[in-house]
Amino acid sequence: MEAPFLAIHGVTRTFPAQGRRPATLALRPTDLALRQGEFVSILGPSGCGKSTLLRIVAGLDTATAGEVRLHGGKISGPGRERGMVFQSYTLFPWLTVEQNIRFGLAERGVPPPEQQAVAAKFIARVGLSGFERHWPRQLSGGMQQRVALARALANDPEILLLDEPFGALDHQTRELMQELLLEIFLADRKTVLFVTHDIDEAIFLSERVVVMTRRPGAIKLDLPIPLPYPRDWQIKTAPGFAALKATLMGAIREEVLATAAVG
Question: I want to staple 192 with a disulfide (CB 3.0 to 4.6 A). Which of 39, 62, 147, 243 is the partner?
Fold first, then answer.
């Protein structure tokens, strides 16, 4: 059998004790596999380890046990084949829109004319033509996240890792960003692992949605989303969408209520 494109095997994460604070088990042994070109979202109650798992895949954190493999090779740190977009606005405030997008290319020694061409391409794709010389402080939150997405894509990663990238945006902007991301996904077919708290967002974007248990987190449910692409906003009112939402809400609600009962 062919090995999965991305394979998470038995990953656990324990944060050591600090002072009077005891050690915290954030992730129980967790397994998840993604095919190349697949869009998978992760849902779960707050504090269940979603972002921790994503950071381990990104190479920004280290598993206490288990391993993550990409193309069969073990991940041991950050790499250009993985592009990360965070919830917080992580642009360099001293660089313009174009310079932020060119940053990774410059670090890799790509010639300036190629940097400029790549940046121009992705500025156009995310709808920011005319804002090349603007500073991050001059942009709205949605525009800043467009820049962050363009910066990640400019390095041509094989997999996009997105940690609640639209969580701080207003409802209308969030929906527009969902549509933009889906458009880019269908055009490029990058593999996407997407963390979110928004059930509608997860269903709208994904081919599969996994639900994690309360902390210490592990995969509780792996639900295929049998809605055909392309999708537009109207699919959120379809009966099939509502049925999927009910299943996911029920799975998450069980974990939230169990957490409250223990607390």
Answer: 39
